[in-house]
Amino acid sequence: MTDAADPLAREIRGPSPQQMLKSRALSHKGLIFGMSVVVLLVLVALLAPVLAPHDPYEQSLMTRMVPPVFMGGTWEHPLGTDHLGRDYLSRLIYGARVSLMIGAIAALISGVIGTAMGVAAGYFGGKVDAFVMFLINVRLAMPVVLVALAVVAILGGSLTVVICVLGLLLWDRFAVVMRASTLQISRRDYIAAAQVIGASTPRILLTEIMPNVVNNLIVIVTLEMAHAILLEAALSFLGLGVQPPTPSWGLMVSEGKNMMLFEPWLVLIPGVVLFVLVLAINLMGDGLRDVTAPEGRS
Amino acid sequence: MLGTTTRSTLLAATLMASVAMPVMADKASGTLNVAFTKELENVDSYFNSSREGVVLQRAVWDGLIYRDPETNEYVGNLATSWEWIDDTTLEFKLREGVTFHNGEAFSADDVVYTVNFVANEENGAKTQRNVNWMKSAEKIDDYTVRIHLKDKFPAAIEFLSGPVSMYPDEYYAEAGPSGMGLKPVGTGPYKVVEVVPGQHFVLEANESYHDSPKGQPELARIDIRTIPDVNTQMAELFSGTLDLIWQVPADQANKLAQMDQFTVANESTMRVGYLQMDAAGRSGESPFTNKLVRQAVNHAINRQELVDALLQGSSKVVYTPCFPSQFGCVQDVTEYEYDPEKSKALLAEAGYPDGFSIDFYAYRDRQYAEAIASYLNAVGIETNFNMLQYSALRELNMKGEVPVSFQTWGSYSINDASAMVSQFFKHGALDSTRDDEVLEWLDVADSSTDPDTRLEYYTKALKKITEEAYWAPMFTYNTNYVFKTEVSYTPTADEVLRFVDMSWN
Predict the structure, then answer these.
(1) Beta-carbon contacts below 8 Å between A and B
(2) Could you confirm whether domain A21-54+67-292 is CATH 3.40.605.10?
(3) Cβ neighbours of residue A222 closer than 8 Å, sequence gap 6 or more
(4) Angle in degrees, 0-180, between the axes of helices A144-155 and A210-237, rounded to the nearest 10
(5) Which ipTM value was assigned to this complex?
(6) What is the mean pLDDT of chain A?
(7) Is the pLDDT assigned to residue B327 strictly greater than 50?
(8) Is residue B1 scored above 70 in pLDDT?
(9) From CA A92, how far away is CA A97, in angstroms rounded?
C-alpha cells in the first residue's frame, strides 16, 4: 500500500472501498502492464483503417518478402512484406481485429453458456447439479483441439465457424468455477434472508449471487479469451481456421514457416505479437483477481 | 539444483544424439544421400502413382525401349529392335544375356507374364491409363515377343519407353505386388538392398548391368529417406547428412544458390497449372456457364507476374491446356492478356457489375493459389478459399461440385497432347466443360495414326477450347535440384531423377 506509512491518517480520512480498489490496482504492476497492452491493441484493432499504411489485401508480387526496417528494409514497409508482397505491418494491424474479435466473442458465448449452467447447478443443487456435472464431464472428456479440428474440417474454415466452435467448446471452466462459487455463497445467511422475505429466484440470482461471483467470472473470461486466441492461431496455422486472404496471426506464422530458415522475421513478428497479447491478457486476468478477490486483500 | 541436473542431462542427450548421427556421406564413402518429400506407398511401379515411384522405377527396372531424354530418340533397351506387324500388333526382338538382380535370366516369358498381368484390369494396376491400351502379349520364341493392342494407339512406343517396365515372371508370380514392393527385383542399373515402406530405401549399383542405353551406374550406393519438411531437408543439407534434394521451392533455391557449396539446377517439367471453371454448370447455378465470365477470369490473371515472381526458373506462360512440347499442342490459340479493367467490364456485361462470391478450391502450392485468388478478388470475384487434399478435391470434382479450382497436370511426362487434353475434354468425370464438338475432334485425333490428321484435329479442339475460355491455363512448372558441388548431374526436362547419370566430381 502506498500510504501504508501513515496508517493513522488513512484511518481518519477513511478511504472509500472504490479508492482502496483503485490504489490496489495502480500498485499492481502486472495488471497495469497487461491492461495497457490490451487497451493499446484494442485501440489498434479499432483504428486499423486509419493506422495501417497499406491495404492489407493488396498484392504486389514484384516486391515479395522485403525485409523489415531493422533488417535492412525501408520505411515504405516498416515490417517488410509477406510472400505475396502484402505489407506486413498492415496485415498485423488487421490481424489484431481477427484475434481480438475471436477471443472476445468466443469468451462471451462460452461465458454465457458456462455461467448459466454453473450458477443454476450451484444454486438449485440436486438433479440440476447432477445433470450439469454430467454435461461438464462429457465436455471434459473431449479434447478441445481434436473436436475443433474435426468440426472445422467438416464445416470448412471461416471466421464464423471458428468463433462458434470455440464459443461452444470453451464453457467448461466457466461452468466449473461458477458452480463452485455459487455453491459457497448460496449457503450464506443473506441468501436465506432474501429467500425469507420472498424475493423471486431470478432476483436472488441476479442481485444477490452474481455480484458476489463476478470477480471469479472476470478472471475466467480473460483466461478463456487468451485460450481462444491461441486456439484460433493454432487452427489457422494448420490451415483449418480463418482462410486466406483474411489476415490472421496464426495464418501469418504458417505462411512464413516455409521460409523460416532464411527469413525468420516472417515467423518471428506475428509470433512475438501473439505471445505479447496472450501474456498481457493473462497478466490482466491475474491482476484483476488479485485486486478484487476478498482473500487477496492482504 | 534439480533444474541444473535436468539441463545437463538434456545437454548430454543432445550431444549423444549428434554423435550418433549417421556417418557423413561424401565422395569418400561412396554413398549419395537423397531426400524424398512424399511417402511412397509401394515401390512396385505399377502400384503407385507418384513422382518418387517413377524415380525408383527408372533406377530399378528397365523397359523394352528407352527414350533418350536429350534427343527424344527411341532406342532399344531390353528389346534390340521392334516393328509394327499391323496397326495393333508390335513385335520385339529381345536382348540376350540379361539377368535380373536375383539371378533369373530375362526372356520372352518375363515380358509375356508382365504384360498379361498388368494389362488385366482385375489385378488393379494403379494408373490404368499407362497399361490399359495393351490387350496381351504372346511368345514367339525365347527372344521374340508380340504385344497386342486393344485398339490403334499411336503413343504405344512412348508408353513402352516410360511407365511399362519388365518384371521377372517366376519371382513376380510368387511375390506379387506387395512382395515386389518390399523386395523389388528388376534388371535396372541399381538393385534395392533395403526397404522400410514409405520411409527409407537403399540402392546399390548393379555390377553386372547389361550394355544399356541408360549407361553404367557410377555411384556405389544411394540412401533415400522420406523427409516431408523442406526446412528439415535444408538443415540436413547444411549439416552434411544429405547430398541431394529436389523439388525445392524457388525462394529457397535462390538462397541456396548464393552459397558456393551447392549446385542449383533448374529444369522445366511438363506440369501445367490452370484454373478449371464449371462451364457445364454441373455445380448448380454457376456464373462460369457464361463465356463472358470465363473470359473475365482469363483477363484477370497476371500470368507473367506469377511466372516472374513466384515460379521463376524455366517456367513459362501458357494459354493452351497442354504443355507446348507435346505433340499436337499448337501454340497458335486465343491469348488473354492481363487487363483487370477489361475483366471488370466483361463481368459487368455478363450481369455481374459488382462481381460475385464463389467457392475456390486448390490442392497444392498454396502460395500460388492465394496469389491467383487475390487476382480474382481484385476484379470483384470474391473467393471462399478451400485447400483440400488431392484425393478429396478429385472426388468433389468428379461429382461436379467444384465451381472453380486451381489444378495442375503433369501428363505423366508423356510428350503427346492426348495425355492432357484428352484426359479432361472427353466428357469424363473430370470434364467440367462437356463440349460435344471438342469430343468429336479429340476422338478423331486420338485414334488416328496419321500425324497430319492428328495435328489438324488437336488444333481444331485447342482453338475452340481457348476461344471459349473453358479453362484459364496459366503457367508451366519447373523443378529445382540442389546438390553438393562434389556431385555431378545434369537434370532432364522430364522431372525424373536419374541416379545412373550422376557421378562424383
Answers:
(1) 61
(2) no
(3) A281, A282, A284, A285, A288
(4) 60
(5) 0.75
(6) 86
(7) yes
(8) no
(9) 9
Contact B385 A59 (CB under 8 A): no
Q: Are B387 and A239 in contact (CB < 8 Å)?
A: yes
Contacts of B311 in chain A (CB under 8 A): none
- Probe site for chain A from B264, B374, B387 (most A CB atoms < 10 A): B374
According to the model, what pLDDT value does residue A13 have?
66
**Domain ranges in chain A?**
21-54+67-292
pLDDT, greater one: B18 or B406 = B406
CB B174 within 8 A of CB B147: no
Contact by Cβ (8 Å): B327, B417:
yes
- A236, A240, A262: which to substitute to probe chain B, counting the most B Cβ within 10 Å? A262
pLDDT tens per residue across span B257-296: 888 889 999 998 889 999 999 999 888 888 999 999 999 9
Whether A61 and B231 lie within 8 Å, measured CB to CB: no
- A245: nearest CB among B230, B305, B374: B374
Contact (CB<8Å) A259/B234: no
C-alpha cell at A128: 440440476
Segment holding B398, helix H or strand E: helix B390-398
Residue A107 DSSP label:
H
User: Are residues A65 and B377, on separate chains, in Cβ contact within 8 Å?
Assistant: no
Which pTM value belongs to this model?
0.79
**Interface residue of A55, A60, A83 to substitute, partner B, most B CBs within 10 Å:** A83
- Give the burial class of A189: count Cβ atoms within 10 A of its Cβ; 0-12 exposed, 13-18 middle, 19 or more buried: exposed
CB contact under 8 A, A62 and B386: no
Residue B12 is predicted with a pLDDT of 46
Per-residue pLDDT reduced to its tens digit, B232-266: 999 999 998 999 999 898 888 988 888 888 999 99
Q: Which of A156, A245, A258 is facing B370, going by the closest CB pair?
A: A245
| Domains, chain B, with CATH or none | 36-222 (3.40.190.10), 269-477 (3.10.105.10)
